[in-house]
Amino acid sequence: MMSNDHLPKKDSDFNNWFKNLCQYVTLKTSGATPEWTHIPQAEVTLLNNAYSAWYTVYVIVLKPHIPADTLAKDEARDDAEGVIRPFIGQWLMWKQVSDVEREEMGIHNTPPRRGHTAKSPCAWEGIAGHSGKRTTEKAAGGSGGKP
User: Using one digit for the tens of pLDDT, what is the confidence trace for 91-114?
Assistant: First the structure.
């Protein structure tokens, strides 16, 4: 797993992480204090459906199985990651979600990557050194201090 990647590499770890993420998001969007009202219920349903699809195929490979089952599991994981990554970027990096909550979901609190443009308010905005905007001369079209 890359240091800035939230998703565990090992399938069993991924399964546990994904299940925790879904349970946490479902709880926080169902009235737990403080409730996350910024996430549409349809998006939570999409996340939970992705977990169900993943888990249905994942449990098959926990016992003796054929190679096609492994392929189906790998495809289901790719599909799940295709839902998870945008969900995290769009809904869990908002200011309404605290750093502590992200850590509890297993989402590392790292500053935005260079060149990253968030669609939602940057969770790091206001933290010293993390305005969410590059302020170097290079960002403004200059040389960035290099000749």
Answer: 998 888 988 999 999 997 765 555
pLDDT tens figures, 23-39: 999 999 998 888 899 99
Measured from the Cβ of residue 107, the count of other Cβ atoms closer than 10 Å reads: 19
- Give the alpha-carbon dihedral of 87, 45, 34, 113, to 10 degrees: 0
- 2, pLDDT greater than 60: no
Give the Cα separation of 18 and 15 in Å (integer): 5
C-alpha distances in Å from residue 1, one per residue of 14, 80, 86, 102: 11, 16, 18, 18
What does pTM read for this prediction? 0.70
What φ, ψ does residue 17 adopt, rounded to 5°?
A: -65, -45
| 47, 25 contact by CB (below 8 A) | yes
Q: How far is CA 102 from CA 9, 89, 146, in A?
A: 19, 12, 37
Nearest to 97 by CA among 5, 27, 28, 26: 28
Contacts 24+ apart (CB under 8 A), 73-78: 73/11, 77/11, 77/14
